[in-house]
Amino acid sequence: MPMQTLSLCTLHPPLATLSTFTKTLENPSIFTLRTPHKTTNRSSNSYRRRITVFAVKGEEEQSTPSWAKPDSDEPPPWARNETQQTSSSSSFEPPFFVYLLASAITAIAAVGSVFEYVNQKPVFGVLNSDSIFYAPVLGFFAFTGVPTAAFLWFKSVEVANKEAEEQDRRDGYR
């Protein structure tokens, strides 16, 4: 395998040649070759040198993303997400917690209507129990409220799952 080297210390000649380094490069990685330190008294030269050697395969050195090449028209990943968000902003979808809140309020109103009918309490303090519209109004809230609450809850789960899958796709998990 051909080995390419790069010395970060170019001011001084290396103290050890690479031919004395006998590590095989089966898995190319970054490693450091440290040379022995020579220290002498002040009258002669005292020095300390370190050589750093990088070994990389030739193909890996040229692995730049396609969007980073100078002649590429492909936008970077963050720019692709921005164009997708602007195209999807034309159809507004409320977040999941809006559906969940509406489901909870509808379920409370439906159950409350049943309790008001059983206890003969006035509806919102407006319709008394002797009114002709008392039973139909409470019946409408009770019978349509429970399925509506179930639908809104299902819709909130559906929207939350859609948002989670979209985030997973953006993060690269799918």
How would you describe what is shown here?
Keywords: Membrane, Transmembrane, Transmembrane helix. This is Transmembrane protein. The chain has 4 helices and 2 strands; from the N terminus they run ββαααα. By secondary structure, the protein is mostly helical. The protein has 2 domains: about 1-60, no CATH class; about 95-170, no CATH class. A two-stranded antiparallel ribbon has the order 1-2. Helix 3 runs antiparallel to helix 4 (about 135-170). The protein is elongated. The protein starts with about 30 loop residues before the first strand and ends with a helix.
Secondary-structure topology with pairs:
Layout: E1 30-33, E2 51-54, H1 58-61, H2 77-88, H3 96-119, H4 134-171
Helix pairs in contact: 3-4
Return the structural class.
Answer: mainly alpha
Q: Give the terminus-to-terminus CA distance.
A: 36 Å
Number of domains: 2
Helix residue percentage: 40-55%
Shape type: elongated
SSE topology string: EEHHHH
Number of strands: 2
Q: Give the percentage of residues in beta strands.
A: under 5%
Rg from Cα: 36 Å
Quaternary status: single chain
Q: How many strands, which pairing sense, and closed or not: the largest β-sheet? A: 2 strands, antiparallel
Query: How many helices does DSSP assign?
Result: 4
Spans of at least 5 consecutive residues whose pLDDT stays below 50 are: none
Strand order of the largest sheet: 1-2
What is the mean pLDDT? 74
